[in-house]
Design a protein that fits this description.
The structure is a single chain. By secondary structure, this protein is an all-alpha fold. It has one domain (about 15-245). About 70% of the residues lie in helices and about 0% in strands. The chain contains twelve helices and no strands. It has helices at about 1-10, 15-35, 45-55, 75-85, 90-110, 115-125, 135, 140-160, 165-185, 190-210, 220-240, 255-275. α2 (about 15-35) runs parallel beside α6, α4 crosses α5 (about 90-110) and α5 packs across α8. It starts with a helix and ends with a helix.
Length: about 280
């Protein structure tokens, strides 16, 4: 069965220039349809991001105004477009958001073998149904884009077997740590995805090397970057939250009412998507 699907995908293989052109077209269609510059469906979240780009101050603006979660990654990076290139706040928000999404997309597709699957993923990410537009608009897109960038650097480290860790490997590992921390800053829930990635990596490492922990993994640089990342990330998140506005009316994590409401919205969205 797996070979059958593999043969079908190979028959759908597309030439590299054509694949790249199709991906660019998909991204441009998405930008001119869904970005804040052109979309008619702007909301208060879009307005807050644009306003924060215009009037951004550290360290009190590490989270959005009136909140103590949801890192202001777009307003921070958007300072380049707004303050240096002198773009408008709304243009800065649009270009920054799509720069992050595009970079994350190319990081994730580094895992894909077939060009056809890269095109399908571009459609899913950049041209979602209107009901699923939050993938682009809210923190979900930023979160997984940053993890996607981390995946790209993970592939750069482990594409070939490592006999000796060189400077470039340490640079890649450091960047992986930075982007993991950034993704957790953007969304606390990114911690779950990162934990899964680390567990899968450790398990695959043991299976590949077939050696026990205290004689192998304990001596690898990855372990120390994990420890450093946990310490640095924890301190940064604590610092960011301690400088944010304290909000007392957020629901607790996994609040039953919140879970029920989210499930109800999810099922309704899926029903609307398939016209049930």
């Amino acid at each position: 069965m797996n070979n059958l699907w593999k043969d079908k995908l190979e028959t759908l293989q597309i030439k590299k220039p054509v694949c790249f052109l199709l991906i660019i077209i998909i991204i441009l269609i998405s930008f001119f349809h869904h970005s804040s510059l052109f979309s008619p469906f702007l909301n208060s979240d879009d307005a807050v991001i644009a306003l924060m780009i215009h009037d951004f101050h550290l360290p009190q603006d590490l989270y959005y105004w009136g909140a103590n979660r949801g890192g202001t990654f777009i307003p921070l990076i958007g300072q380049f477009f707004n303050k240096i290139l002198h773009f408008s706040a709304i243009s800065s928000e649009s270009f920054t958001r799509y720069l992050i999404l595009i970079t994350g997309y190319f990081g994730i597709i580094s895992l894909f073998r077939f060009r056809f699957s890269k095109i399908i993923f571009a459609v899913v990410l950049f041209l979602p149904p209107l009901r699923m537009i939050d993938v682009i608009k809210l923190g979900f897109g930023q979160q997984y884009a940053l993890i996607g960038i981390s995946i790209f650097f993970i592939n750069k480290v482990y594409t070939q077997s490592i006999e000796k860790y060189r400077l470039k490997h340490h640079i890649y590992l450091f960047l992986i740590m930075i982007f993991f921390i950034s993704s957790i800053w953007v969304s606390d829930l990114a911690f779950v995805t990162i934990l899964i990635i680390l567990i899968v990596h450790i398990i695959s490492y043991f299976r590949k090397n077939k050696i026990i922990f205290h004689t192998s993994f304990a001596g690898q640089p990855e372990l120390y970057y994990i420890i450093l990342g946990m310490i640095a990330g924890g301190l940064f998140i604590y610092f960011a939250k301690s400088n944010s506005v304290r909000v007392e009316n957020y629901y607790g994590f996994l609040d039953p009412g919140m879970v029920a409401d989210s499930f109800r919205v999810f099922t309704k969205t899926i029903g609307d998507l398939f016209l049930l």
